[in-house]
UniProtKB/TrEMBL annotation:
Residues 39-191 form the HhH-GPD domain. The keyword Metal-binding applies. Keywords: 4Fe-4S, DNA damage, DNA repair, Glycosidase, Hydrolase, Iron, Iron-sulfur, Metal-binding. Belongs to the Nth/MutY family. Signal peptide: none annotated. GO terms for molecular function: 4 iron, 4 sulfur cluster binding; 8-oxo-7,8-dihydroguanine DNA N-glycosylase activity; adenine/guanine mispair binding; metal ion binding; oxidized purine DNA binding; purine-specific mismatch base pair DNA N-glycosylase activity. GO terms for biological process: base-excision repair; mismatch repair. Pfam families: EndIII_4Fe-2S (PF10576), HHH (PF00633), HhH-GPD (PF00730). Its EC number is 3.2.2.31. CDD domains: ENDO3c (cd00056). This is Adenine DNA glycosylase. It is an enzyme of class 3 (hydrolase). PANTHER family: ADENINE DNA GLYCOSYLASE (PTHR42944).
Length: 303
DNA sequence: CTCCGGTCAG
DNA sequence: CTGACTGGAG
């Protein structure tokens, strides 16, 4: 298969079929791109849209977010899920201000060093915000490349170096064209080459897809190891955080005790939130979101 | 490798 | 009811 043909076909398809998403509007800054990418980690586009708009309206720059306490970021995150991302995005804003004068860095190395920015997000920002030529490999791209090139119906659970190499080989030489192709690969995986029910009939590379050529059936088992939610610490963390999010300032432990009956699990979940930096003890058997309200006053000394 | 939210289509 | 969703970090 010709790499050139593959990227060209998918890019041309993308130009005609791309969803109209706010972070794809020409001229959006690197900060907006970064915010969108972090929100989109493990979260579907349709749920990110409103949160993205609200977030950027309130914090249009890294400096604006860095100036507010983490508690505000956690609240604004709402029910997007994985609230540690809100914490890390706040930490990331602080790091951008401290290390890069408030400007999102454009070098891959510097991006990777930021909190909450990993292999995928760093390359996404470098490519989509700065037009650089990097393989941008998320779960969609892994699946598309795995099918089209290797002929495998499913990719592995995580991005490996080999995935980056395989994807890089499909990219056009011109940086701008490569960035466009990366967005196109992702869109193809999100809309056409989906995990369970691929729409091969409308796929622009159906005729040169190794998986189709192999005649293999659709993937059998789950793409990812099943994750339980009900009854897990994650659910309890979510319940605890919901109470803290809706309160202003410290919350008595007694109120947190009401969200879950199992003392052991509830305590473990709360301790985990503290360890992650999302929650902090506020004295007198109370807890609050990180940095919510005034600093903890030092114990008053008896005169 | 495991943990980490929350929602929704099938 | 399960699987999937533009991953990252310990």
């Amino acid at each position: 298969m010709s790499e050139h043909t593959f990227a060209t076909r998918v890019s041309r398809w993308y130009e005609r079929n791309a969803r109209d998403l706010p972070w794809r509007v020409p001229g959006v800054g690197a900060w907006a791109i970064l915010v969108s990418e972090v929100m989109l980690q493990q979260t579907p586009v349709v749920r990110v849209l409103p949160a993205y708009e609200a977030w950027l309206a309130r914090w249009p720059t890294p400096a604006a977010l860095a100036a507010d306490p983490p508690a505000e970021a956690i609240r604004m995150w709402g029910r997007l899920g994985y609230p540690r991302r809100a914490m890390r995005l706040h930490d990331c804003a602080v790091a951008i201000v401290e290390r890069h004068g408030g400007e999102v860095p454009d070098r891959l190395e510097q991006l990777l060093a930021l909190p909450g920015v990993g292999t995928y997000t760093a390359r996404a920002v470098a490519a989509f915000a700065y037009g650089q030529r990097h393989p941008v490999v998320d779960t969609n791209v892994r699946r598309v490349v795995s099918r089209a090139v290797a002929g495998e119906p499913d990719a592995g659970p995580a991005t490996r170096p080999a995935d980056l190499v395989a994807t890089e080989e499909l990219l056009p030489a011109e940086p701008a064209e490569a960035a466009l192709a990366s967005a196109a690969f992702m869109e193809l995986g999100a809309v056409v080459c989906t995990a369970r029910s691929p729409r091969c009939a409308v796929c622009p590379v159906e005729s040169i897809c190794a998986w189709r050529a192999s005649g293999q059936a659709a993937p059998a088992g789950p793409t990812r190891r099943p994750q339980r939610y009900a009854g897990t610490d994650r659910q309890v963390r979510g319940l605890l955080l919901a109470v803290l999010r809706e309160s202003s300032g410290p919350v008595p432990r007694q109120r947190l005790d009401q969200v879950w009956t199992d003392d052991v699990q509830r305590s473990r979940a709360l301790a985990g939130l503290v360890t992650d930096g999302l929650v902090e003890p506020a004295g007198g058997e109370t807890f609050r979101l990180a940095g919510d309200g005034p600093a903890i006053p030092a114990p008053a000394l008896d005169a």
